[in-house]
Structure formats: C-alpha cells, structure tokens
Amino acid sequence: MEMMVDARSLPLFTRLRVRVMGSAHFHKLDGLEYLYGRCKFHGYYLQYARGYEGKVSCPECHDLRSGDGPQPETAPNPKRVI
C-alpha cells in the first residue's frame, strides 16, 4: 500500500516529525511497518519501510524513474565531438 496523503489530514506533530526526522511511524499491519514520508515535489505519502535500513521513498518519483509513470518530454542529447 503506497499512497499520497493530504497534508491537512496529518496532525501538526506528525508533519513536524517528518520534516525533521525524514519519516514518522504510522502503524504496523500484517507485519509491515508503515511510515509517513515527504517529497519536496509531490508532498506527503504513506509507504511501508523497505530494505534493511527501513527507508521510504516517494512512490510518484519512483514511477518517474522506473518508467511506469508519465514521462516528461526531453530534447535529444547531442553527442559531444572531440
């Protein structure tokens, strides 16, 4: 379960903790620990902790990097001639 969260629905203490610490505990469900996180481009999101260190990352940014989401139009990169 990964989802974007409206900032107005989060308590002030949770928003401050996410800003300072990088993430804030939400709850455990089915053995997975869910955390709030914040992306400077997309806002707040809820995601389960991943990896050995239990980090979270923005699902919207992940979709853009992996090619699953809409791709921005980019100009072709000209090759540099030496």
What does this structure look like?
With 82 residues, this protein is α+β, with helices and mostly antiparallel strands. It has one domain. The chain has two helices and four strands. The protein has a four-stranded antiparallel beta sheet. Strand 3 and strand 4 (43-48) form a beta hairpin. The chain starts with a strand and ends in a 16-residue tail after the last helix.
- In total, the number of strands is 4
How many domains comprise the coordinates?
Answer: 1
Q: Beta fraction of the residues?
A: 25-35%
Unreliable residue runs? none
Rg = 16 Å
Q: Write down the secondary-structure element order.
A: EHEEEH
Major pleated sheet: 4 strands, antiparallel
User: How does the overall form come out from the CA principal axes?
Assistant: globular
Give the distance, in angstroms, between the N- and C-terminal Cα atoms: 49 Å
Summarize the topology.
Layout lengths: L2 E3 L6 H10 L1 E7 L2 E8 L3 E6 L10 H8 L16
Antiparallel strand pairs: 1-4, 2-3, 3-4
Task: Briefly characterize the structure.
This protein is α+β, with helices and mostly antiparallel strands and 82 residues long. It has helices spanning 12-21, 59-66, and strands spanning 3-5, 23-29, 32-39, 43-48.
Name the descriptors.
4-stranded antiparallel beta sheet, 29% strand, 82 residues, alpha+beta, globular
